[in-house]
Amino acid sequence: MKKTNRSNVVVPRNSPRSFYGDGIPGVNPDELVGKLIVVEGADGSGRSTQIASLVEWLETSGHATVQVGLKRSTLVSEELERAQNGNILSRTTLSLFYATDFADQLENIILPSLKAGFIVIADRYIYTLMARDIVRGMDMAWLRNLYGIALKPDAVFYLAIEPNELVQRNLAKTATLDYWESGMDLGLSRDLFDSFVEYQTLMESAFRKLQRTYGFSIVNGTRAVDEVNAELKKKISAVLAG
Asked: What is the pLDDT of residues 110-143, one digit of tens each?
């Protein structure tokens, strides 16, 4: 967890907060006076670059920030990493592992930080988890119930990149493609490259379906870094202004 610059407390939002479902027992959403900003997107979409820039901008402006993301829970992150490295997880086990990782961070980092007035920047949220599960054939009603504990963010930005460009970006960065980000567990193709493109195409489709339900912003991530960053800052500034 990263916490910095405690000098500025965010002004409480005008409208009441709410959870997607029953939420966390004993938590009063109206006491969560900070802001929750989510940046979604596949590996290679530019999430890390944009988040680093946004955090610097916010902190320079005097805002206190906290960063969270997938597989950062002290409860299960190491076990999840080991299991994924062995490529041995069933779709249900994978889903529950990530749900546990999310729940732990929500209860112990996100909600306390929001109550203290921090701006929480989430490097992906429940939407990536749901999209992955949708592609793997999980029941949507079950997923909505599973993630009913999630707090509705103040803003969500999905950085959209064409799968063929994602391939090139990932190969340029790491010279390889990730087993799970390529959907190799689904048997889409024996070829890692082809499987990656097909899997990311399915993921993009799942995200666009989720967008129609959850109403988050789809941002064209193929543009120059500065152009994408300018759009994100403009929209976040509007959120902070209420």
From this structure: 999 999 999 999 999 999 999 999 999 999 999 9
CA dist 74 and 28 (Å) reads: 25
Q: Is 183 domain-assigned?
A: no
Domain CATH number, residue 231? 3.40.50.300
CA distances from 63 to 44, 80, 209, 229 (A): 28, 33, 33, 18
Instruction: Give residue 117's domain range.
Output: 2-161+222-240
Is residue 91 domain-resident? Answer: yes
90/83 Cα distance (integer angstroms): 10
Please report how many Cα atoms fall inside a 13 Å half-sphere around the Cα of residue 222, on the Cβ side.
9
Token pair listed for 207: 């995200």
Q: Are 13 and 242 in contact (CB under 8 A)?
A: yes
Facing residues of 9 across strands? none
Is the separation of the CB atoms in 43 and 178 below 8 Å? yes
How far apart (Å, rounded) are the C-alpha atoms in residues 171 and 40?
A: 20
Q: How far is CA 219 from the centre of its chain?
A: 14
pTM over 0.85: yes
Task: Copy the structure tokens of residue 234.
Answer: 């403009």
